[in-house]
Design goal:
Layout lengths: L3 E6 L5 H10 L5 E7 L3 H11 L3 E2 L2 H6 L5 E4 L3 H13 L3 E4 L7 H14 L3 E3 L7 H11 L6 E9 L19 H18 L2 E9 L4 E3 L9 E3 L5 E8 L4 E7 L10 E5 L2 E5 L9 E5 L6 E3 L12 H12 L7 H20 L3 E2 L21
Parallel strand pairs: 1-2, 1-4, 2-3, 4-5, 5-6, 7-12
Antiparallel strand pairs: 7-13, 8-11, 8-17, 9-10, 11-12, 13-14, 14-15, 15-16
Helix pairs in contact: 4-5, 5-9, 7-9
This protein binds nicotinamide-adenine-dinucleotide (NAD).
């Protein structure tokens, strides 16, 4: 299989793991040919650290016909602009979550990719990891019977204590639903399929946040978005789920995700990781028991979605972290806010195919 030449756009906090995994673990499928950042020194530093041959401007990347795939790791406010320009130039695009801030931009990205006959992929790809794939197999094999309901919780006190530039988490396009919801929603869709109807209740508990991480310590952020959101999700197959995402909670004892079936219950691991543990307790059993992971990729494998897209381009098959899935997630997140504002259930206009299961028995770096 020939390697796909890739450019990384946005060399910030999350880019390190992409550089590392794409240059070391997935270098059979991709080659990082260039990197870009609006702050050129950041791209130069990354280029030097990871041995990337070229540090270019975005314009230069768009005009470089050897580069086929753009990996957009910019902040959410730049996701659509950078991705649309790359799609317009005929490049395949994989980007960090969320797909876009507005539904309109997300839709344009999906439509433009189709029109240009290129692939659009979007994080999170943690659902491709060993933990959630093991859960997927258990559900598809009927081990917990027919799914009845699910509970999902992502609650913490925000990112201003550790992220060096946390402002975007509290601006339009941020908040716990747009930031962390994609992990939970993508995992739930992988496990249970598309969502049909959404209702929500949202609030903002603190008007301002103070940065306590080092470089911007003491800086005040004005909070623009709701920071505690509860959603009820009705899946197309009849399963119901409750999902809470919060940046307002100091401590809690709620699970990441649990799925309740007619024959028993499943504890799904943190969907912001690739690992386990996967815990199962069937009807009549008295203890939860840990299920051995059935799939590859249990360590931090960010970049596996890019590699899967490269394999899909070369192998002429579908990729897993696909644009329709990311658009459905975006649609759900907007519907939670809209339902809270309007006091009504929202019937979704979008749906998507469940991504295909990851292969079993492959080596690290291999995909199928
Ligand atoms: N930090 C994390 O732990 C984490 C984890 C998972 C996903 N993400 C997602 O990754 C994305 C980036 O997050 P981050 O934490 O790395 O942010 P960051 O601010 O640390 O890095 C973003 C980088 O993109 C650059 N950039 C912004 N606009 C640009 C443009 N138009 N062209 C070129 N470069 C541009 C910035 O200069 C910066 O270096 C976000 O969508 C975030 O949701 C972050």
């Amino acid at each position: 299989m020939s390697k796909i030449k890739v450019a990384i756009v946005g060399c910030g906090n999350i880019s390190g793991i992409y550089f590392k995994n794409l240059t070391k673990r997935f270098n059979n499928l991709v080659e990082i040919a260039a990197c870009v950042d609006i702050i050129k020194e950041k791209a130069e530093a990354a280029g030097k650290e990871y041995g990337i041959p070229k540090v270019l401007s975005f314009e230069e990347v768009l005009n470089d016909c050897e580069i086929k795939l753009i990996v957009n790791l910019t902040i959410p406010a730049s996701h659509a602009e950078v991705s649309l320009a790359a799609l317009e130039a005929g490049k395949h695009v994989y980007l960090e979550k969320p797909l876009a801030i507005s539904r309109e931009d997300g839709r344009r990205m999906v439509d433009l990719a189709r029109e240009k006959n290129v692939l659009l992929g979007c994080a999170p790809e943690t659902f491709m990891g060993a933990g959630i794939q093991t859960c997927r197999k258990l559900i598809d094999d009927g081990v917990i019977g027919k799914p009845i309901a699910a509970s999902a919780y992502m609650m913490c006190h925000g990112h201003e204590s550790w992220h060096p530039a946390p402002e975007f988490y509290y601006k339009i396009g941020g908040g716990p639903m747009f930031d962390m919801g994609p992990y939970y929603l993508t995992a739930l869709i992988t496990l249970l399929g598309s969502v049909r109807r959404v209702s929500g209740s949202v609030k903002k508990s603190f008007e301002q946040r103070t940065i306590t991480s080092e470089s911007k310590k003491g800086t005040i952020i004005d909070v623009e978005v709701p920071t505690h959101l509860s959603a009820l999700l009705d899946f197309a197959d009849g399963t119901t789920a409750n999902l809470t995402t919060s940046f307002d909670v100091w401590h809690h004892n709620m699970p990441n995700i649990e799925i309740y079936g007619t024959e028993g219950s499943l504890k799904v691991p943190d969907p912001n990781t690739f690992a386990g543990p996967v815990m199962l307790k069937l009807k009549g059993e008295t203890q939860w028991r840990e299920i051995p992971l059935t799939h590859e990729y249990s360590e931090n494998s960010r970049g596996v979605g890019v590699a899967d897209m490269a394999a899909a381009i070369s192998g002429n098959r579908k990729h897993r972290a696909h644009g329709d899935l990311a658009y459905h997630v975006l649609d759900i997140m907007h519907a939670v806010h809209e339902s809270s504002d309007s006091g009504k259930h929202i019937l979704l206009q979008s749906s998507c195919e469940r991504p295909t299961m990851m292969p079993m028995g492959v080596q690290d770096g291999e995909l199928d």
